[in-house]
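From the shared-data thread, chain only:
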Amino acid sequence: MEKKITKIIGGRVFTPQGWVKDGTIVVKDGKIAEVGSANVDIASGTDGHIVETIDAQGLYVVPGGIELHIHGGGNRDFMEGTEDAFRTAIDAHMKHGTTSIYPTLSSSSVPMIKEALATCEKLMAEEGSPVLGLHLEGPYFNPKKAGAQMPEYITPPIPSDYEPIISGTHALKRWDEAPELPGTTEFGRYCTDHGVLAAIGHTNAEYVDVKRAWDAGFRHVTHFYNAMPGFHNVREFKHEGTVESVYTFPEMSVEMIADGIHVPPTILRMIWMVKGVEHTALITDALACSASNSDKGAFDPRVILEDGVCKLADRSALAGSIATMDRLIRTCVQMADIPLEDAIRMSSETPARIMGELGRKGTLEKGKDADICFYDQDVQLHFVMQQGKVIVE
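Structure, as tokens:
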């Protein structure tokens, strides 16, 4: 195979130290070999590689997006469990700036989970794979906050189900649960002890429940503000909701569906202001109908596409989005007035930190995977590279 070094020049490169005007990135064997100013010299390190130059003149050069919570795309859903469904959905979103991905299952049966894990394990083993692990959104949820989750699968935590699943794979990286359910402490500790991120979701939790979750090892919150209560009255007395409770734990990270619909732009800005860049990640929560030119609906027949978002057909709740990674960043900048550099960090650096992948992902630094995107001044995507492979140019 032809060996190649790619030299990206001329753009405004976003590094952990800030923007580098007319910066240069050297990519070799899927990794970032150098990041610096325009005078970076690679002549001594070519080792017989062919040198290709890409001009990013006038564009922002930023790290690729890391998707923590996504159900499908390109008219395929990860609940299908098949290799073809996984590859189709992943490829569709990579064209929109997602360079690393945690495929997500909504509440599912144990056989469905096992099939998806087997597929995920196979893809993770491939060289240069964008797949970093599987995310299970349920089925351990509060039925009153089920939203678009399939009700037939929802249950409190069942140790005889989750323990063999967690201990039997390296591919499961995150599992969401409602912490008011019986068995929360045992579930959270088992996840944490086995390197699986426990996250709060689809819940009616108040402070005592969130505190119990924190003590059990929960460190993250699923689609913050969605499928959880805020400040409310119980008769004449006021109560904190899940939202306010989470704010009292500064180190607990959150994710927000930044499509401008699931969470209004004002709330997106407030989350950024209160939780901060270091503890806020952008997610699409995208369904099968995202990243597609087809008018085919969602995988779940109960879900319709209307007003630019997925809903239950009875309009009782929003379902997932049709957003893509580039849209998340654009929404934050243009609708929520969040600085571009912070939106970029919330799409890349923060997800990498949350999932323990910051050593190889999330920022443009020497030695890290060459996951790189170009955006213009209108936050339109122009280029995607995933581990040195050009996806969009």
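The CA atoms of residues 231 and 240 lie 5 Å apart.
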